[in-house]
TrEMBL record:
This is Organic hydroperoxide reductase OsmC/OhrA. The lineage of its organism: Bacteria, Pseudomonadati, Pseudomonadota, Betaproteobacteria, Burkholderiales. InterPro entries: KH_dom-like_a/b (IPR015946), OsmC/Ohr_fam (IPR003718), OsmC/Ohrsf (IPR036102), OsmC_Ohr_Peroxiredoxin (IPR052707). It comes from Paraburkholderia sartisoli. It holds the Pfam family OsmC. It comes from the Bacteria.
Length: 160
């Protein structure tokens, strides 16, 4: 078993907390030293009580799912002999009410554009299989209830 940690810190800076007019800005510190400014989403808590420049938990959730998928995709592509020159995903997460009436991230759509280089190019079917294998292996995709769809495309980089 591995343990993954993050420190989440918030300071009210003397705000009158009980009037609900306090900043939701906080920070995440990870074990490698990365510090990320975080906040509630301005879609959930209005500015100035949210910081739109900071990462909100919903964005981080989408990014984490995308990142996990990408890392597995790159690993599996390398194992199968495909040379990946670039990978860009403009992932989206949709929030809606679930069957219990709770607001949740109901669907995440990964939209990776994978640029391949070299002699071996995947067919559309092979690309689909790469994404399926990455999704199947992704720890996070296996840990959540959210529907995750992959609508990937690919390109060939002849300059490399």
């Amino acid at each position: 078993m591995t343990l993954h940690t993050a420190v989440v810190e918030w300071n009210g800076n003397g705000s009158t907390f009980t009037d609900n007019r306090y900043s939701r800005a906080h920070r995440w510190t990870f074990d490698g030293g990365a510090v990320v400014p975080a906040s509630s989403s301005p879609h959930v808590v209005r500015v100035p009580f949210s910081d739109p420049a900071a990462v909100d938990p919903e964005e981080a959730y989408v990014a984490a799912l995308s990142s996990c998928h990408m890392l597995w995709f790159l690993s599996i592509a390398a194992q199968r002999g495909y040379a990946v020159a670039a990978y860009r995903d403009e992932a989206e997460g949709a929030m809606a009410k679930n069957d219990e009436g709770k607001e949740v991230v109901t669907r995440v759509v990964l939209k990776p554009l994978v640029t391949f280089t070299g002699e071996k190019m995947p067919t559309d079917d092979a690309l689909h299989q790469l994404h399926h294998a990455a999704h199947d292996a992704c720890y996070l995709a296996n840990s959540v209830k959210t529907r995750i769809d992959v609508e990937g495309t690919w390109a060939y980089d002849t300059a490399r």
